[in-house]
Amino acid sequence: AKRAAHEADVADEEDGSVEFRDVTMAYSRGGDPVLRDVSIVIPPGAKVAIVGRTGAGKSSLIAALLRLRPLAAGTVFVGGVDARAHPHDEHRQRVAVLPQDPFVRHGTVRDNLLLSRADFDASVADGGDATRTKKGQRRVLDKAMKQALHDVGLGQLKLSDEVGEQGGKLSAGQRQLLGIARVLLSGGK
Questions:
Q1: Cut 0.85: pTM above it
Q2: What residue spans define the domains of the chain?
Q3: 1: which DSSP letter?
Q4: DSSP characters for 124-148?
Q5: Given this model, what pLDDT does residue 188 score?
Q6: Each residue's pLDDT tens digit, 34-44
Q7: Which residues have CB under 8 Å from 116's CB, separation 6+?
Q8: Is the pLDDT at 189 greater than 90, yes or no?
Q9: How far is CA 22 from CA 31, 62, 69, in A?
Q10: CB-based contacts of 175, cutoff 8 Å, min separation 6
């Protein structure tokens, strides 16, 4: 019954709205708040850029959204549901965040796109121990990754292309587009 109630809550989250309601957060217990009484409503499907001077709280907003730090006060809602209602890993899979300079690891385009898909078995992605079912899963995954690359204007890249150390073989713009493709694959709202 508890699992069914949890799954019902998850279904409600599908609208993708985000709300910060009177959020206060500090980086140390009893420390000065870095966010104080912040209230923001982001409607479903909105594309939001967070800008501001150094120390304004941009990274702190993301830390609060991803539950990287406990809140001193207030609540963050995703899809109208308190973000604390779900285990950390499930919550983070529902939220897609793209930093200005996205992380790109040494390896292939495929390796970097897979960072967004914790739900796929790595042996499926790299072709290891490929049973018939796994081969089918890999084809589906490869098709989705190629579509995401095409959607962001990186259709010329192959999944097997090496990106170099910290994405050094890609331009800064290509690294950002790769990050956007990763967000598209993540399924976050």
A1: no
A2: 2-94, 109-186
A3: -
A4: HHT-TT--HHHHHHHHHHHHHHHHH
A5: 62
A6: 999 999 999 98
A7: 96, 182, 183, 185, 186
A8: no
A9: 18, 15, 16
A10: 101, 102, 104, 167
Q: Are 73 and 24 in contact (CB under 8 A)?
A: yes
Per the listing, tokens 């089918």 go with 136
The pLDDT tens digits of the residues spanning 38-78 come to 999 999 878 788 888 888 888 899 899 989 889 999 999 99
29/19 Cα distance (integer angstroms): 24
DSSP assignment of 3-70: HHHHHHHHHHGGG--EEEEEEEEESSTTSPEEEEEEEEEE-TT-------STTSSHHHHHHHHTTSS-
Q: How far apart are CA 129 and CA 16, in angstroms?
A: 36
Q: Report the alpha-carbon distance of residue 79 to residue 143 in Å, rounded.
A: 29
Tally Cβ neighbours within 10 Å of residue 24: 15
User: By the 8 A CB rule, do 38 and 94 touch?
Assistant: no
The highest-level CATH class for domain 2-94 is alpha beta
* Average pLDDT over the chain, rounded to an integer: 82
